[in-house]
Design a protein that fits this description.
The complex is a heterodimer of chains A (278) and B (267).
Chain A (H helix, E strand, L loop, with lengths): L1 H5 L4 H20 L3 H26 L10 H22 L5 H7 L2 H6 L4 H7 L7 H17 L6 H32 L3 H15 L8 H10 L7 H8 L15 H22 L6
Chain B lengths: L1 H15 L2 H28 L8 H15 L10 H10 L2 H6 L4 H31 L8 H27 L1 H4 L3 H15 L10 H9 L7 H8 L4 H38 L1
Helix pairs in contact in B: 1-6, 2-3, 2-6, 3-6, 4-7, 6-7, 7-11, 7-12
Classes of the chains: A mainly alpha (278), B mainly alpha (267).
């Protein structure tokens, strides 16, 4: 049945279909323990909100951090949190691939008529991650409401584009991290440094960090395009590295560009895979 | 006693086999250490002496937190998920037949794990932090000794709390929800998020008497010499030991209630 249908679509359509089916299965399975689902969703929202509580506590002692006010930091915090939440929900479980390689269950995925990336991305799909997305959008909404921004059509458009392109950049980092695990097998945490660690950094204004670090996350792992550059433009603040204002609109392009090395790394990873045999 | 030492050694060795995972963890702790350190510098530049710490002490707080994070399972991890899995599958019945105390068995295994992670994931980030930032690490060996005792007590308090969290699976079957809630409490109330001395007013005083403060805030203050003289340090350690006893005792009560439930299910 699956094979017959898949012949009609291209590999992308096939992948999306497989992804959708696996996701639906995991959602049904999650709903078996409904209390636990509610607790984990709320828990995820609260855990991520705690970072913002920490920032609020900081602001009970100071008026500005790195020259930025609380609503300005809330815009950075909320957008990054929503982007990471979105990427995390759609393909956050790619970091489980190390475990799949170790226990040999990746073999089963390779023989199924669905692209491996779709299967790995949907693996144990966690709807509870709506919690992070929800609280991120909530804090961002408060920021947009409170901030005194001179809104133009471009700036209004930039806010949703920032969240979606940001999610795509994080997604590319996750795919690269997953590909890296074909070599190391057991290093999911390195990926976390770039995703969760990156988001922790992006919650704070770039003025807080050393210039070399800023160059690294602008030109090497382009996390600055997740929210710093678009948000600085919305806030009408200059970029500490002196980049021109129009780079704020480059996030979607950057997201597209970083997917090229990510997909190449992924292909190389799958091709190099040799089963443990167990 | 020999039995529990062997169990602890097993816990140590088990985690020692994950070489690449440990290296990845060191990398993560170091990256987070750098990010948080920069935000603390911005904060302490703005408010010198905040929470009773100067900037070097605040930076020490950051890097020692990163070093204790995995050992004390401050943001999750540890054994509780495995215990819950054994409860869910019924394997726990086998454990209860063993001629060993269930709580002591898991305590030994978890301490073995913690000691490995203290060495494997604790030392390198702290050294990296000390090289990159001016830290206020003490030179007095006695202070380090007191700190190590305090860390050991922190590990026991952390275990005692997570043991209870694990046992909840006897009633809820699926522990994911309660585990998240426990992690939330641990991140917020241990000092991982911000030193508890920075928490404002009466709320700050309240969070400092909760058991979670024994997991990070107290060892940190022992290291930084915040408790005046020998009496102050003894008081800090007694605070931790008190919570350890109360929580281990409560865990035992919960355990006996839970094991009675196993008999009911088995019949």
């Amino acid at each position: 049945m699956v094979a017959g249908e898949s012949r009609r679509g291209g590999p992308v359509r096939e992948g999306l279909r497989g992804y959708r089916l696996i996701v639906a299965m995991w959602i049904r399975s999650t709903m078996t323990y409904r209390t636990s689902f509610v607790m984990t969703t709320v828990g995820h929202a609260v855990i991520t909100l705690l970072d913002f509580v920490a920032i609020s506590i900081m602001f009970s002692h100071v008026d500005a951090l790195g020259g930025f006010t609380l609503p300005e930091i809330a815009l950075l915090y909320g957008s990054c949190s929503a982007s990471l939440g979105l990427a995390d929900m759609l393909l956050g479980n790619t970091d489980r691939i190390g475990a799949r390689i170790r226990d040999g269950s990746l073999d089963t995925m390779l023989v199924r008529p669905v692209p491996v990336l779709a299967q790995v991305a949907a693996d144990r799909f966690a709807l509870r991650r709506l919690g992070r997305i929800g609280q991120g959008l909530g804090v961002m909404g408060w920021a947009v409401w409170t901030l005194d921004v001179d809104w133009t059509a471009g700036k209004v458009l930039l806010v949703p584009v920032m969240v979606i392109a940001g999610a795509a950049i994080f997604a590319a980092v996750m795919v690269t991290g997953a590909a890296f695990q074909f070599v190391t097998g057991d290093a999911a945490e390195v990926q976390n440094s770039f995703t969760y660690g990156g988001c922790t950094m992006l919650q704070y204004p770039p003025t807080v960090f050393a210039k070399d670090l800023l160059r690294g996350v602008t030109f090497i792992v382009p996390l600055a395009f997740v929210n710093w550059l678009p948000a600085l433009h919305v806030l009408g603040r200059p970029d500490p590295l002196g980049l021109p204002g129009w780079v704020a609109y480059l996030s979607p392009l950057v997201a597209f560009v970083v997917f090229l090395p990510a997909s190449l790394a992924w292909r190389a990873g799958v091709r190099s895979y040799r089963s443990t045999g167990s | 006693m020999d039995l529990y030492l062997a169990v602890a050694a097993g816990g140590f060795r088990r985690y020692a086999t994950y070489g690449i995972a440990t290296a990845a963890g060191v990398f993560t702790n170091t990256v987070f250490g750098f990010i948080v350190a920069y935000t603390y510098i911005a904060l302490w530049d703005e408010r010198p002496g905040l929470g009773g710490y100067d900037q070097a002490q605040a930076l020490t707080f950051v890097w020692v937190s990163q070093s204790l994070l995995a050992a004390a399972a401050l943001i999750g991890g540890g054994f509780q998920e495995e215990l819950q899995e054994r409860i869910r599958t019924g394997d726990i019945a086998v454990d209860l037949y063993r001629p060993a105390d269930l709580q002591m068995w898991w305590l030994a295994a978890d301490l073995g794990r913690a000691v490995f992670q203290l060495l494997g994931r604790g030392v390198v980030p702290l050294v990296a932090g000390a090289l990159a930032f001016p830290l206020a690490l003490p030179v007095d060996p006695l202070r380090w000794l007191l700190f190590l005792v305090s860390v050991l007590l922190a590990l026991v308090v952390s275990f005692a709390l997570r043991y209870m969290v694990g046992l909840v699976a006897f009633w809820l079957m699926d522990g994911a929800g309660i585990n998240i809630m426990a992690t939330v409490a641990s991140i917020f109330f241990s000092g991982m998020l911000l030193p508890l001395t920075v928490f404002p007013g009466g709320f700050g005083e309240f969070v400092r008497v909760l058991p979670w403060s024994a997991m990070l805030q107290v060892p940190m203050d022992v290291l930084l010499g915040k408790h005046s003289g020998a009496g102050g340090a003894a008081e800090a350690l007694a605070f931790q030991a008190g919570w350890a006893l109360v929580l281990l005792g409560t865990g035992r009560l919960l355990q006996s209630a839970a094991t009675r439930k196993v008999v009911v299910q088995g019949g």
